[in-house]
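During the reporting period the student researcher (J.K.) took over the structure-prediction task from the postdoctoral fellow and processed the backlog of single-chain submissions. One of the processed entries is reproduced below for the supervisory committee.
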Amino acid sequence: MSVENQSIEASRKRMPFQKYKPFKPIPLADRTWPDQVIDKAPRWCSVDLRDGNQALIDPMTPNEKQKMYDLLVEIGFREIEVGFPAASQPDFDFVRGIIEEDKIPNDVTIQVLCQAREELIERTCEAVSGARNVIFHLYNSTSTLQRKVVFNMSREEVINMATEATKVVKRYTDKLEEAGTNVILEYSPESYTATEMDFAVDICAAVMNVWQPTVDKKVILNLPSTVEMATPNIYADQLEWFTRHLPNREAAVISLHTHNDRGTGIAASELGLMAGAERIEGTLFGNGERTGNCDVITMAMNMFSQGVDPELYLSDMPKIVAVSEECTKIPIHVRQPYAGELVFTAFSGSHQDAIRKGMAFVESGSDSEWEVPYLPIDPADVGGSYRETVRVNSQSGKGGIAFILENYFGVALPRALLLEFSPIVQALTEQKGGELQPEEIWQAFVSEFIEADGPYKLIDYQLRSEGDGETCEANIMVAENEMAVVGEGSGPIDAFVDGLVKTLNEPLNVVDYQEYALNEGKEAQAICILAISDEQGNKYYGVGISQNTVTAAYKSILAATNRKWVK
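J.K. obtained the following structure tokens:
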């Protein structure tokens, strides 16, 4: 090592990594979850109104909570955690409101959270009185650290806390059941990921022994990644270990509630399903404490992109985004998966070209399945448009320009013309220093190829058929003078070109001619794209648009001639 390199190494700043200890993996050599495939949706439970609301700087107002609740029902959540009614009067009032005003559909179960204390359990049961279906979510922390630092309790004392609280819940909810409410217990050993696996099994089994669930009426065991502490594969190992060792496993629904401290909350939930979980708690767009919860929309859309019915209706993504932003005051990032403004947008020239060709393949009907490069799903499936997938800035290329012209204006350019137009657009993007809107690209095309500067302009014309040919009598402006042009040919274009050559002494040869309709019906217009060549073989493109196909052709010839003069 050189002296220079030695000095650089010696002066390099370092993070205090030594103060942290790595998470110990779970000994599970015969794990089976990596071979599993997610082929059906889990039971979804939204916690936007509780966990998501508690994470907001300004908690939702009653109107905002109602708007969010209505959206969750519309999307298709059948289990919704509606609050922590014993913790605040607004939560209590909201729960009472949706019950007393009969705003809970018959197939929706509300969920309420409660700590393991009798006065809170009593208050929570008071809040849900009269509801048809209720999940009573009881929790207490079980992690080694919290037992030592927060509660100063032994394992046995923590188990006793959980079982005594379960007995209290059972006593109060028995009265609810007698009054016609169907109650399901959900128990969470909070900070499950930081809890010894054998202890997590012991405390959950003890709660089940008190509650006495059956296969027909199961308990929900929610195993939260309250703080994400390791890679998602370790969470999956913890879950597979747990389900293997849990007594009376068939009487329990394994639920997950992941957080996103390491940025892998969704991955942890997905791998958790593979490891045997059946239920997922999360929020729209991942709003939650610290770095957030599992993003249910992204997770559901991930399933959708694999041909799995997510059992949530997310086709009106713009509405979901709007309501979420209004209620949470948190803007959705432009690159948010499936929902961000730019999530389907490509600025790169090579990406744009691939998308354009992929879209052409899909529209050809050759394959009923969606396969477009860089687009894992059809933007239209979430309320977007494929036209928004390509936008043009200085990083774009001819493929993006072609996509814009084809999909916004119905104009398909020949390759040679596209190659000529691309540098013009490139210069505009560099001059502007940002994105060009479709109308700006179209106006540049019109200025260069349709309304091309030059001496010639068509005023009017008349055609006469004579035998096998046509005679064209046209009036054109040449600079500031009007001039009559008369020519003959096998068709209208031949006759017009013949008149220009004879009258103006302009050597013209039409090449690369194409003409097609821009739209349909009474407002249909024809577009004519052609090139003329000079004695040296140089090509000059011109474009004409008119409801009359002959007029479009004549305009394109004069536009090309003008460009020849200017060039």
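The committee noted the following: The chain has a mean pLDDT of 93.
J.K. will present the remaining backlog at the next meeting.
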